[in-house]
Amino acid sequence: MTPLYQRVAFVGLGLIAGSMALAMRRGGLVAETVGTARSAESRAIAAEIGLVDHVTDTAAEAVQGADLVVLCVPVGAMDAVAQDIAPHLAQGATVTDVGSVKQAVIDAVGPYMPDHVHFIPGHPLAGTEHSGPRAGFAELFDNRWTILTPQDGVDAAALDRLTRLWQGMGAQVDVMDPPHHDLVLAVTSHTPHLIAYTMVGVADDLRRVTDSEVIKYSAAGFRDFTRIAASDPTMWRDVFLTNKDATLEILGRFTEELFALQRAIRRGDGEHLHAYFTRTRAIRRGIIDAGQDTDAPDFGRSKR
Length: 304
Fold this sequence. Notes:
Layout: E1 5-11, H1 15-27, E2 30-36, H2 40-49, E3 54-55, H3 59-63, E4 68-71, H4 78-85, E5 94-97, H5 103-109, E6 118-119, E7 122-124, E8 145-148, H6 156-168, E9 172-175, H7 178-207, H8 213-216, H9 220-229, H10 233-242, H11 244-267, H12 270-289
Parallel strand pairs: 1-2, 1-4, 2-3, 4-5, 5-6, 8-9
Antiparallel strand pairs: 7-8
Helix pairs in contact: 7-9, 7-11
């Protein structure tokens, strides 16, 4: 297979970058990969395990000669990274990212992108609670969705090429307007993570009173909360700061629903509770039917 890109540069070498590099290698999608990370330890680990073909000390070095540059840093760091790499981007290169928020990335990166490159923001809807160069695995994107949020006037050939790359890594690809992406992700990812962090925080306070019984006797629901809440704190801090309007809107709706359930419990309204749980249970079946999870008791996560 002829490689889609000759040289791909990763700025950031965590779970997503590592999984992309391994998926590209699995599919023979690129000729060469190069990467860098802010942490010297991460760079050393990436070099040790051969995560990419070459590891550089700086982002400016990494992007030189690359026909695809992937920004895999927290959203709050995008501005500084874009400013750093802009003078070193090759003619006709595509710059993309993997951030969980899109409008904020466009606002941070777009102003620094020279006219001779194609900027196509992206977001793979895949991940685990693990982070760092050792966390990546080639199958992460298999049958998962990647959303691209190109701006008006994007080069059609560049968009098609990036789409085929993601498909080659196993993903399904959709195109979405950036503000709509941020609202959808506030529902499906951002607010659920905030709720998980809150529930684990409540349990941590209770644990101090109950001599660790909350931890010792954790049921499946709480264990899954802790899995979500184990995600990278820097990334999620930036997500909530940069997508606060959509998150606050969905959090307000969640609070209204919670108050309604609280009222039903107080009044002993079993009919309301049963109808509500029946309706929401169907969402879980829809996710399984769409191939986005499994109905196995461990949610298919026993290997990771």
